[in-house]
Amino acid sequence: MVLQARDLTVVYGDTTVVDRVNLTLPEGPLGLGLIGESGSGKTTVARCLLGLVAPAGGTVTFNGVDLTAMRRPRPYRRAVQIVVQDTEGALDPRMRVGRAIGEVLRAHRMVARGVERHRVTELLTDVGLTAEHAARYPHQLSGGQRQRAAIARALAVRPRFLILDEPTSALDTTVQARILDLLRRLRTEHRLSCLLISHDLAVVEQLCPRVIVMHHGRVVEEGDLTDVLHHPRHPATRTLRDAVPRLTSSPPP
Amino acid sequence: MVSARDAAWLQLRDVRVRFGSSDAEPVVRVDELPLDEREFLGLAGESGAGKTTVGLTVLGLTRRAGAHVRGSIRLAGEELLSMPERRLRRLRGSTMTLIPQNPATAFNPVLPVGVTVLRTLRLHGCSRAEARGRAAAGLERVGLSAAHLDRHPHQLSGGQLQRVAIALASALRTRLLIADEPTSALDVTAQAQICTLLTQLRAEHGTAVLFISHDLALLAGLCDRIAVLHRGRVIEDRPATELVTAPHADRTRQLLAAAPRLRGLPVPGPRDRRGEEPGDENREARDDGYDEEAADGASGP
Amino acid sequence: MRARGARGGRTALVLALGGAGAIVLVALLAPVLAPYPEDATGAAETAQLLRPPSAAHWFGTDELGRDVFSRVLYGARIGPVVAVAVVTVSLVVGTVIGVVAGYFGGWIDELLMRLTDVFLAVPALLLALALATVLAPGPVGLTVALTVTWWPWYARLVRGETASVVGRPYIEACRALGLGHRRTLVRHVLPNASTPLLVQASTDVGGVLLVASGLSFLGLGPQPPTPDWGLMVEQSQNYFTTHWWLGTFPGAAIMLVAGVCFLLGDVVRDRFDPRHVPRPTQRA
Predict the structure, then answer these.
(1) Which residues of chain C have pLDDT under 50?
(2) pLDDT for B56-93, tens place per residue?
(3) The listed CATH number (3.40.50.2300, 3.40.50.300, 3.40.50.1100, 3.60.150.10) that belongs to domain B3-286
(4) Minimum Cα–Cα distance from B269: chain A residue
């Protein structure tokens, strides 16, 4: 299985927010980082990969089939999942977490009727929550717990690709570290191919050996993270690298 | 350093903040927290540790929110906790200012930011011409221009809005800046910019900064001293370098382990290398249950 | 603050539910409760004309000698029922049109909203008046006339709410998760878009009752001898200065029921949102 964007271009009004972006996500386990400042077009790329935004030019293909031409999108929907930054908005505020996950299981006929509840518990446990959390509404959970629930819901369909759009930016560092640990474990256990979108190289480093750097809608650099860190070729990459706080006590330059 | 603290410019002593009733469990119990002029103090801790409450209490804003505050907060020898609201209001904005976490909601959405800025300056005794001049100078210092005053908040990026807030603080010649996670809604590049500007502000006006954040790596690069807050108590309060290289408390070690940083980065100074040790050996320390998340908890905004 | 709010909320809840329950009971049990059930529509009692309130006739008797108390009790079967029917039908029609327009957008949205605008372009009361005149006068005609003028407001409201809900990440998540349109609409969009509508609707029952009584007063609703409150007020006009009880008691009934409906609307607003569940709030 492979998810691919070719010459992807998105235009809002008269601004080109994504400009001929090429990107290939092979099967996992794997981590690819997509980094850039706010407004560099990272999130729009993710939304295109999920078919939520129709590109003005170029294509997104899943196993070689163009998304827009796809007649039976269900296998693709099942294979590609997303976890977003906004933990409060990602879950329906009127639906208990367990039901939200169960609904996905039912819609895709992932489990037999009687064992749905069992499967929900299994998914929640897998992300470090418990059966108790199934009965809670999203607002009764903390940000970190909500993000775990969102991850559990994404895993319910047994995806092959997981797009992580700033999954930890709204969380504090302690919780962020735990969520990243969790994602690292899940990536291996479920053989997930992860596309991690972030502005923070320190976060990307935790999950991704390879990175793509975006700047003003274009891909300006691509390569192994270590290479990119040591020999950034584009000034935007250097800015992103130097902006990451170091554990030193000297004031920033 | 610690001995001369009685005479500190800003001194918190035996501060207890309670919400609800006056015999409730205090959310903040700070026995001592000094801050000198020109000093950068980082206030670290997880969500729910009481960091914001400490900041707002110094500004006298928790009392208005119905909190019960006991103890003493002295600024340049004057007791803030017993100060009448009217005098406190005059201090707020001029002598001490808050830079809030979410710049998008901190400005009135229907007014150009310039109106907010100029009104604030006028309120603190500037003439019209003086206000305009100071605002323009302040904006220039943060890399914006007077033209930005005509924009509405939604036309500016989060980083730009925070820069406007800093420009205002600079125009007001603020002595004490309480920065409540001013960069957590920004990307790393904008964050680095804000930190540089705060350092400049200190150089120009001798401003002291209480910088609240959950990110120890960020504080370490910016602050002279870091105090770690846990469940409302200061569990460790030491010079920044010492604290990040040889943390005493377990909680500090956990925060340090969680701090995002680039491990594979070149140019590691000698300090950097030492800084990584506690983090690495405490990697497992994070996995001691998820109760902290529960504490950050149900506290959504 | 929260504690006081909760207590205040409980009093309002008890009052609103108690009031609504009482109205329903009166409507159901009118034949049992009314001392002179035959007077509800019944013939004239020439011996008892225009008697002031007394032990035998608590609210007095009218110009045909009928017991006003009995007629007011029976009135609970007309005005409030019309009001509930108007709101319910408008709610269903408005919700369906609004949700479909807001969710699908594009030309469907355009078409449905222009259609709605046509109805909104004519002043509501005028349209209702015209329709009530054309239709056969009576409770059914009144209900139809009011429903036609009422649903477009709901359609607008729901469409706006739906459009804003559709933009939220969890609705997008439904698409990303491969949930069908129907499931997304019914399970996620509808419950989240309809809360403000339910609040609006429960308050509206009172408003519709007032308008319906007004139309009855103008003779465009139920016809004599139906014991409709609005109609009773109208018929009392000639006697108002000399025989105050004829108009006062039906008028008070309208006011009371409308008041209970408004209170109920408040209670629904306070209770309906799951996010209003009390929770510890402590900011860091």
Answers:
(1) 1-6, 277-284
(2) 999 988 877 788 899 999 998 889 988 888 888 888 88
(3) 3.40.50.300
(4) A248
